[in-house]
Task: structure prediction
Amino acid sequence: MERRSIVKGIDYSPVSVEKSQKVNEAAIAEGRCAVLQGSVADMIFAGDWFDAVTAFETVYFWPDLPQCFREVYRVLKPGGTLLICNESNGDTDKDEKWTAIIGGMTIYKDTELKAYLEQAGFHGVQIHKKKSWLCITAWK
Result:
């Protein structure tokens, strides 16, 4: 990453935001990082702002997934990349166990995520699976 790059993160959970701010304290103090509480469904960022957006183990909890993907598309620059990584890919017996234990969790199959991404305007969607892991890249 270039020295002039800035990393911005959002999370619904005030506890997660506070923890992330502590872990990234030096980068925040240097102006290289910001961690905010917010919703991916309605981000405060300007359109065409980010080169890349990542979502690690989070899309399970995004409300109205199609709207969230449209919002990610909005904030990405043309040619920008979205990377999604999930430990559960919707194809294992453990998925039901996790959704029963964790309220509000929805585990999506790769085909569902690809369809939602394409409906939001993303192209070149690539699906990578390894064991129960699922990683998806998509471009604006």
User: Anything to note?
Assistant: Residues 1-38 form one domain. The chain has two domains: 1-38, 39-139.
